[in-house]
Amino acid sequence: MAPDRTTPAPGDTLLLVGTMKGAFLFRSDGDRGEWRMEGPHFRGETVYSLAYDQRGGRHRMLAGTQSFHWGSVVRASDDFGVTWTSPERQNVRFPEDSGLAVANIWQLKPGRQSEPDVVYCGVEPAALFESRDGGESFSPVDGLLNHEHRARWTPGGGGLCLHTIVPDPSNPERMGIAISTGGFYRTDDGGRTWQPRNQGVRAQFLPDKYPEIGQCVHKVVHHPGAAGRLYLQNHWGLYRSDDWGDTWHDIANGVPSDFGFAMEVHPRDPDTVYIVPLESDEFRCVPEAKLRVYRTRDGGASWQALADGLPQEDAYETVLRDAMCADAGDPAGIYFGTRGGKLYGSADEGDTWTEIADALPPIVCVRAATVAANGSNR
Amino acid sequence: MAITIALPGALRPYAGGSLEVMLDERCATVADALGALAGRHAGVVDRVVDETGELRRHVNVFVDGDNVRWLNGLSTPLEADSTIVIVPSVSGG
Lengths: 378, 93
Known about the structure:
The complex is a heterodimer of chains A (378) and B (93).
Chain A: E1 13-19, E2 22-28, E3 36-41, E4 46-53, E5 60-67, E6 71-77, E7 104-110, E8 119-124, E9 127-131, E10 139-140, H1 142-145, E11 161-167, E12 175-180, E13 183-187, E14 195-196, E15 217-222, E16 230-234, E17 238-241, E18 249-250, E19 259-265, E20 273-278, E21 293-296, E22 304-306, E23 324-326, E24 334-337, E25 343-346, E26 354-357, E27 363-370
Antiparallel strand pairs in A: 1-2, 1-27, 2-3, 4-5, 5-6, 7-8, 8-9, 9-10, 11-12, 12-13, 13-14, 15-16, 16-17, 17-18, 19-20, 20-21, 21-22, 23-24, 24-25, 25-26
Chain B: E1 3-6, E2 20-23, H1 30-40, H2 42-48, E3 59-63, E4 66-67, E5 83-88
Parallel strand pairs in B: 1-5
Antiparallel strand pairs in B: 1-2, 3-4, 3-5
Helix pairs in contact in B: 1-2
């Protein structure tokens, strides 16, 4: 469908959906009952990373697009997808002397409210880039690019990717990143140095089950309302940290499998987290062919299956690491997309679900935003 | 005498819409020609070779009808009037 040229109103909800063959945009009002779809944008290109940036009064969409033939680039739209930039030079590039070349853009993460022009970008092969002009140009973060562990990082099934970026909203010097496979790393000095923070995270596939590095971390989420609180979905293993990753504790209490990719935290409650368990690394589909989201409301002490409105028979679905998200509504909206091209949403924090789209290309990224008059962070 | 570089449709927007670019400068190899092209249309060359200077995996470059992958790659020599054709490979997902 052609781009919707009407400007969303404050309070409207946007869904940005990245697929293996382009990006789609969905709009709804604050009730989130009816959705209008438009797209595909970037027809035929893979879109692993999307972001909606409302800092500094802007309304900017960012998309990391990968052409099968011509490489990857970050594009921006300031008019809700009516037009997108098409940078002449590819704006995420390794230095020529690094010997590295960008294979894919895995993550776009707007920086802190206090730095409204900063955008972070995670790529394959694993590296972090930083933009100081709102996502138009990017430079590598040298402290990670030249990290002494680089030669020991090894590709997972999706490639050697830096797929998760977690800035500390209250400390501009602190940030976490996750690499598959390498593990979770943290800087406390603004990116100059990075230390592995994987103590307690199991590496099922290595002889040493608790190494310093080498874990295949699939996703990490942080909630600004609880200082130091992180949750981690591992390649086998669900964990929580209350000290910004210094130590991790198993919270796989009552889930059908602790293997999975997607993870999201509630926009206001740091004890509420959502995951979609998969059967195993050998059969990466939901257990028993029942599509169920699991939610904890007590910081991982217990998990509740959420299935109302989701298929419970013959649903051989997979939800990937960036294909689940939350909006800023109250009650919170929760959304996820599957490799089978189905997009689901819940307007009541996961209690009930509706199918928003049923035949998209394989979904790899879903991002939600509640449109602000100006200056919001989600 | 000039070297001609024919561009696929996807890359023409990065060359001002041109279907082909003529290079008058002396270019001994394909790499030389791409270097000269980068001076005028860097956005085209970004999409043909990666940051390491390697030809992208799913891009094919032909010199006077022959795929350089079966010759000497980007070191393939050129004649003064060679024609270089850049095309996307048939691969896709």
